[in-house]
What we know:
Elements: H1 2-12, E1 20-23, H2 28-43, E2 48-51, H3 57-66, E3 71-75, H4 76-83, H5 92-100, E4 104-106, E5 116-121, H6 122-128, E6 144-146, H7 157-164, E7 171-173, H8 176-185, E8 190-194, H9 199-202, E9 205-207, E10 220-225, H10 228-231, H11 233-240, H12 248-259, H13 265-275, H14 287-322, H15 324-338, H16 342-348, H17 350-353, H18 357-381, H19 385-393, H20 398-428, H21 441-450, H22 453-481
Parallel strand pairs: 1-2, 6-7, 6-8
Antiparallel strand pairs: 3-10, 4-10, 5-8, 5-9
Amino acid sequence: xxxxxxxxxxxxxxxxxxxxxxxxxxxxxxxxxxxxxxxxxxxxxxxxxxxxxxxxxxxxxxxxxxxxxxxxxxxxxxxxxxxxxxxxxxxxxxxxxxxxxxxxxxxxxxxxxxxxxxxxxxxxxxxxxxxxxxxxxxxxxxxxxxxxxxxxxxxxxxxxxxxxxxxxxxxxxxxxxxxxxxxxxxxxxxxxxxxxxxxxxxxxxxxxxxxxxxxxxxxxxxxxxxxxxxxxxxxxxxxxxxxxxxxxxxxxxxxxxxxxxxxxxxxxxxxxxxxxxxxxxxxxxxxxxxxxxxxxxxxxxxxxxxxxxxxxxxxxxxxxxxxxxxxxxxxxxxxxxxxxxxxxxxxxxxxxxxxxxxxxxxxxxxxxxxxxxxxxxxxxxxxxxxxxxxxxxxxxxxxxxxxxxxxxxxxxxxxxxxxxxxxxxxxxxxxxxxxxxxxxxxxxxxxxxxxxxxxxxxxxxxxxxxxxxxxxxxxxxxxxxxxxx
Length: 485
């Protein structure tokens, strides 16, 4: 257990190799803004890392407060309604002192308001005569699909439903970008839009008028740690220099370049900076560089979590075998851990271990222990009693019996549990990308966001091959150690 805690502590310790770390949320516009900030940091002479697609607003905010990132793009309405709701902040003038109490500063607005809107296909809107959000009340049969974050935000679906008295029951959460495909296929009728989304024009959507003024302004801006002014003053000055320079048409054009024209976010950010007189090259990985980096990240997550699980779970399995009453508790707790939804466990661990590899390894470790404990316990329990009696007749003490007789005989079953845990880990490790752990989940997330099947396969195929390879490797090891008789 000490080794486990030490390993997680080392992974949680802030790495100082990089001067500036930029974060961004898991949607295209925010990634572009993050790349713009990374380009400015690079131009200022700093060494920069951009941790892309780190999930929703809360994850980024907590990462900023803990120092795991130094800056990230956000929106005033999100800060009012979601992050600082308890502070009662409702204007930009009140926002600065409220942020300062957390050791955070902000730029002035960048120049565009990316608000929420309810939208649907133009043909469907004309067919039903929908122009305003309040018109939805006349059609309670419509299927509504909202981004997962919007389902629970302070300014999201619960508040919208109350503001407009909406009675729709067919309401589901769906990834924001996948929601556009759901609209086109007819799986849903209405979804939440970001008003600077390129898909509104590309897919001929209608944004319903917010006739009761439910949504506040969502002025884009950057948040950054106050100590960044001392560590990287040139970058902070450049970041503040963006204020008022990114208009709504510019942002929509950049979103279109990435979402519709399929340029990378780095290329889009580089093009914007060039227009602003900053000529830099934002480094982009080649396919093979990406595959190598993601493979090493994925292997690291799986190997460390599995190694820790073996060290902890095998002794627990032995204890469960030796002490049946205690074993009932051990197996029950391990089984209970398996009932926790994986994504929930990943996110719950963030306040304890931060973002990145540490919470991912902890979650994978917890999911690995049940199959190893259970197989260790089962393998020991299935040893023929005659062999145990023979060991006792030879006068072997308990420790020698477990070491020389019971464990060797139970080893094939124990390894089968390790094999099961390893294959589970390879699959679940892809979820770590949501909280910044990298691995094969990173291209999968990006591919889903950009509707790019090639990127999805870039992560899914190697993950499947790795799972098969690990399973075959451990299966071979299982055959080698199986007693011949």
